[in-house]
Amino acid sequence: MSKIYLIAGLGADTRVYNNIDLHDHDVVPLDWIEPDETDTLSAYAQKLIQQYHITPNSVIIGNSLGGMMGIEIAKIIPINKVILISSIKTISEAPWYFDFFRAAPIHKLVPKCLMTSSGIFIELLFGKMNPEDLWLFKDMLKKSSPVFLKWAMAASLKWKNNIVPANVYHITGDKDLIFPCKKIKDATVIKGGTHIMIFDKAKQVNKLIKSILNKK
Description:
Elements: E1 4-7, E2 27-30, H1 41-52, E3 59-63, H2 65-76, E4 81-85, H3 96-103, H4 122-126, H5 131-142, H6 146-158, E5 168-173, E6 188-190, H7 197-200, H8 202-213
Parallel strand pairs: 1-2, 1-3, 3-4, 4-5, 5-6
Helix pairs in contact: 1-2
């Protein structure tokens, strides 16, 4: 059985997978490691491979930024399956604001001390949450490294990938405001799914993941 490596999104940790049922599998949650300022997503992916001893023919499940990182890992070593949730595969799927923030990099002006205290915007961007989920997302953001957050924003905007590796499976939601599905190609779309459908649409996401993992 292949190992399954879980990669979270920006401002999150692998608690985003709390509602995903992988109990019958050998699962390795990946914590974010501190980057060098000059790291690209590809260079950072290589560090994750080395840090967590990711071996060929493993399975990567990546949520949001974690999906982009899964793509970069699969470009370095052969991966059995890469499952993207609420993410993008290539720069052509990136939303309009990528171009905006590349042209006007105002994120660079945000002090590091404020990077983990933007909980007020979580529901505006991710959608309405129940109190428990909202608390968890705020807690994940609060416990994120501001150095990592600032680096990840810049590195994501510099991402120019146009390669889709083999064995990539993509799950997205039609109400995702972070990565709108109208630009996403070759994905399974969950009706009513927002950027946090890994939580509030977990039943549908679990069903799709189970089907993908059972594919030969």
